[in-house]
């Protein structure tokens, strides 16, 4: 072996030996979490069937306005408290409230850039309320947890994951099923 390479070969061998010794002891220098528990904690519960609360105000203009706001917005990051519809909770200073951003996938009256991934909701009340199948309870369930009858859906699981609470699901339901010819007033 070339004499100029010998010191580097010895140094490399010594470095590998030291690394091997310390590597085996490194596991004791930091916490090793139980990965199976982390995965279990991250799992969303299975599909959950919900019943629309009796106090849902489906024809209340303030509920409809809150539902419209959530349907068309991604989050509250740039919201000013005074811009929120009446009765809508403002997030605490520095916090961001996630909304549905439903319009990213669904087209509906007044949508700017309404999506085409989900079914269109234009004229929803006029087109579907007569069937008795897609009534307010149907819409409420679809928004709360659509996996009950469509286990491969890409739609967000809003109530089961606690992204929204029951009253927020009621507001979005009210907006989707309201007759869109009515002018929605934000009070």
Summarize the structure.
This is Sulfur oxidation protein SoxX. The chain is mainly alpha-helical and 187 residues long.
Structure description:
This protein is mainly α. The protein has two domains: 6-42; 61-177, Cytochrome c-like domain (Cytochrome Bc1 Complex, Chain D, domain 2), CATH 1.10.760.10. Helices cover 36% and strands 0% of the residues. It is built from six helices and no strands. Helix 3 (61-72) packs across helix 6 and helix 5 packs across helix 6. It is elongated, with a radius of gyration of 27 Å. The protein starts with 5 loop residues before the first helix and ends in a 10-residue tail after the last helix. The model is unreliable at 181-187 (pLDDT under 50).
For the residues shown, what is the average pLDDT?
A: 79
- Give the proportion of residues in helices: 25-40%
Shape designation: elongated
Which residue ranges are poorly predicted, with pLDDT under 50 across at least 5 consecutive positions?
181-187
Number of strands: 0
CATH-scheme architecture of the largest domain? Orthogonal Bundle
In percent terms, what proportion of residues is strand?
Answer: under 5%
Q: The biggest beta sheet, please?
A: none
Please state the structural category. mainly alpha
Please state the CA-atom Rg, rounded to the nearest Å: 27 Å
Task: Work out the count of structural domains.
Answer: 2
How large is the count of helical segments? 6
Order of helices and strands: HHHHHH
CATH top level of the largest domain is Mainly Alpha
Distance between the termini: 87 Å
């Amino acid at each position: 072996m070339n004499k100029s390479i010998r010191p580097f070969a010895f140094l490399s061998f010594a470095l590998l030996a030291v690394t091997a010794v310390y590597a085996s002891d490194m596991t004791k220098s930091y916490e090793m979490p139980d990965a199976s528990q982390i995965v279990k904690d991250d799992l969303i519960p299975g599909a959950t069937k919900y019943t629309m609360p009796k106090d849902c105000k489906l024809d209340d203009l303030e509920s409809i306005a809150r539902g419209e706001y959530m349907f068309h917005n991604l989050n509250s990051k740039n919201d000013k408290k005074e811009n929120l519809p009446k009765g809508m909770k403002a997030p605490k200073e520095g916090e961001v409230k996630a909304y549905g951003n439903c319009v990213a996938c669904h087209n509906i009256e007044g949508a700017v850039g309404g999506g085409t991934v989900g079914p269109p909701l234009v004229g929803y009340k006029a087109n579907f309320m007569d069937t008795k199948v897609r009534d307010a309870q149907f819409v409420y369930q679809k928004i709360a947890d659509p996996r009950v009858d469509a286990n491969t859906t890409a739609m967000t699981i809003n109530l089961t994951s606690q992204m929204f609470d029951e009253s927020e699901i009621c507001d979005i339901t009210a907006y989707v099923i309201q007759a869109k010819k009515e002018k929605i007033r934000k009070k």
